């Protein structure tokens, strides 16, 4: 089972990825949790660019893809092959959204990624009004970074929501308490993966 959690910054992805992993582990499942950009060399370069200034659009897109290629081959594919549940905080849908917002065609980005990256079984898109998401980011105390500009996030949200009708996608409204959001996520799990009957 491969579960991806996506959404614009501040929607609660990290909070919910951790809670979902804890829920599944408590049910006896073996879970591998990970995130993108990774903490490898390409991911670190990208995270630093959020503070020091973004790379050129082309270089940024290529660097996210290099980071993902390494992530898929070293961590995601081996864990799935061992029958583990993989939970990712961001994946190539973020590239469609954020690099799509920078001018690339989201459909082309998807094609390029699906040539090497496995498609998840379940894509949870956490959704929240832009003002509330920005206020949650502000509440973390670190201010916003170069990826978290209002106009940018507005287009990213549109691209994420454009995926809503796909069969493996569930939109999760996160304008609720963390416990209520976790309940909605558990309700979206297939019963074979400890979802509720
Ligand atoms: N349901 C919720 N209600 C209120 N605050 C929340 C909720 N979920 C998370 N938060 C808070 O909002 C902030 C952002 O949450 P979190 O880091 O999980 O979001 P994120 O989507 O992973 O953000 P980013 O993509 O920027 O890393 C944190 O301070 C977190 O404690
Ligand atoms: C995977 C991925 C991420 N991003 C952007 C989105 C975020 O603003 C930053 C850092 O991620 P975090 O979850 O907030 O720590 O990276 C992107 O632009 N393209 C991608 O493919």
TrEMBL record:
<dbReference type="InterPro" id="IPR018095">
    <property type="entry name" value="Thymidylate_kin_CS"/>
</dbReference>
<dbReference type="InterPro" id="IPR018094">
    <property type="entry name" value="Thymidylate_kinase"/>
</dbReference>
<dbReference type="GO" id="GO:0004798">
    <property type="term" value="F:dTMP kinase activity"/>
</dbReference>
<keyword id="KW-0418">Kinase</keyword>
<feature type="binding site">
    <location>
        <begin position="7"/>
        <end position="14"/>
    </location>
    <ligand>
        <name>ATP</name>
    </ligand>
</feature>
<dbReference type="InterPro" id="IPR039430">
    <property type="entry name" value="Thymidylate_kin-like_dom"/>
</dbReference>
<protein>
    <recommendedName>
        <fullName>Thymidylate kinase</fullName>
        <ecNumber>2.7.4.9</ecNumber>
    </recommendedName>
</protein>
<dbReference type="InterPro" id="IPR027417">
    <property type="entry name" value="P-loop_NTPase"/>
</dbReference>
<keyword id="KW-0808">Transferase</keyword>
<comment type="similarity">
    <text>Belongs to the thymidylate kinase family.</text>
</comment>
<keyword id="KW-0067">ATP-binding</keyword>
<keyword id="KW-0547">Nucleotide-binding</keyword>
<keyword id="KW-0545">Nucleotide biosynthesis</keyword>
<feature type="domain" description="Thymidylate kinase-like">
    <location>
        <begin position="5"/>
        <end position="185"/>
    </location>
</feature>
<comment type="function">
    <text>Phosphorylation of dTMP to form dTDP in both de novo and salvage pathways of dTTP synthesis.</text>
</comment>
<dbReference type="Pfam" id="PF02223">
    <property type="entry name" value="Thymidylate_kin"/>
</dbReference>
